[in-house]
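Students often ask why inverse folding is considered easier than folding. One informal answer: many sequences map to the same fold, so there is more than one right answer. In these notes we will look at a single instance of the problem. The structure comes first.
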């Protein structure tokens, strides 16, 4: 068995397939869970969407054990600056870039990545600010004397088993729920549904795909049904997640037809929302909100994950109406070479300059309408 720390940079999905047994063991002991980077999700994603010419997956071995796996994408420019960078590899159906790092050797393995020379600068997308990976990254970068910076952050809704959000609904929300539920019930029997062992996962998958395509995503061309690569990826992932006991689907039926569905993928002690859909012909009754309240009930009444991350972008605020807890996710960049360090230092200055220019553009029309103020400013 090899001893010490060994770093290997892989460029092809075929090379990754050889690591699957060690990769599975790593995922089971990861400091922070991320099903999107586990082999049963990442390999189908690479096949469906293509790894791309800049794909690099850095594998770090610690005394013969796979200690970390960093899926990355090389880019020629970073945030408008002429410096090459390695960023978390991802695709349009994921918002979690936390790499798989074994908890007991996290800082050591991250340190090996930072010394690998994979790029002048490296940026990790959307990992939890309260996660073990973030702490280990800061420790490793500081130990190596490398500058690092949180380049972006936002908060998204989280559902926590120990904190029932329904107790924190205000009176307006409660009244709206009663009204929406009554209007839906007037249209037919309203029944909760939940994917169970032994169900036909193919039928559940097709049902969800049809429901999603019936709404605005179908009209916009962004629904799963609109793209062959999305359909292949989602169908394969749902089937494998179901086989592993890692797929949760809840929802509501109205008069025997799907009204809403919420699909979640389990990772570690928690789960991540993957896809949601609802019948928009009943939009006036807010079926998405009504179904999400029932999803909360099912979550709390059934054994399973301790938390669910909404896995949404900053623009999506719908979960916040029902889920009352929050998680901060962030991008973190580390400057590895001289060029990377300069770029990292320049980013805040660039943002300040852009902010000042925007302020001046907004001020100019006001000055045109107020000549006296303009004259006083010119005198200064």
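Output (designed amino acids):
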């Amino acid at each position: 068995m090899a001893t010490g720390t060994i770093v290997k940079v892989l460029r092809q999905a075929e090379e990754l397939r050889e690591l699957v047994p060690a990769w599975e063991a790593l995922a089971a002991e990861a400091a922070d869970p991320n099903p999107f980077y586990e082999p049963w999700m990442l390999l189908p994603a690479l096949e469906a969407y293509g790894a791309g010419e800049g794909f690099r997956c850095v594998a770090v071995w610690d005394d013969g054990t796979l200690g970390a796996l960093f899926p990355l994408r090389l880019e020629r420019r970073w945030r408008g600056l002429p410096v090459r960078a390695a960023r978390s590899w991802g695709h349009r159906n994921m918002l979690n870039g936390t790499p798989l790092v074994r908890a007991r050797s996290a800082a050591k393995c991250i340190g090996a990545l930072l010394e690998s020379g994979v790029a002048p600068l490296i940026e990790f997308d959307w990992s939890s600010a309260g996660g073990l990976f973030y702490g280990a990254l800061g420790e490793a970068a500081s130990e190596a004397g490398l500058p690092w910076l949180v380049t972006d952050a936002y908060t998204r809704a989280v559902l926590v088993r120990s904190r029932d959000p329904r107790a924190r609904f205000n009176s307006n929300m409660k009244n709206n729920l009663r009204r929406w539920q009554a209007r839906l019930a007037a249209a037919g029997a309203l029944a909760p549904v939940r994917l169970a062992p032994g169900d036909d996962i193919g039928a559940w998958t097709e049902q969800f795909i049809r429901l999603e395509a019936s709404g605005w995503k179908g009209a916009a061309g962004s629904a799963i049904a609109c793209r062959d690569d999305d359909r292949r990826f989602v169908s394969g992932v749902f089937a494998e997640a179901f086989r592993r006991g890692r797929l949760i689907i809840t929802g509501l039926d109205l008069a025997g037809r799907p009204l809403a569905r919420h699909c979640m993928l389990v990772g570690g002690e928690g789960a991540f929302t993957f896809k949601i859909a609802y019948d928009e012909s009943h939009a006036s009754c807010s079926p998405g909100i009504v179904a999400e309240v029932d999803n909360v009930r099912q979550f709390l009444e059934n054994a399973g994950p301790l938390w669910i991350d909404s896995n949404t972008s900053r623009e999506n605020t719908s979960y916040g109406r029902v889920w009352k807890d929050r998680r901060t996710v962030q991008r973190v960049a580390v400057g590895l070479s001289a060029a990377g360090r300069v770029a990292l230092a320049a980013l805040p200055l660039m943002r300040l300059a852009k902010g000042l220019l925007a302020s001046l553009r907004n001020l100019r029309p006001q000055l045109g309408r107020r000549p006296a103020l303009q004259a006083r400013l010119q005198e200064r």
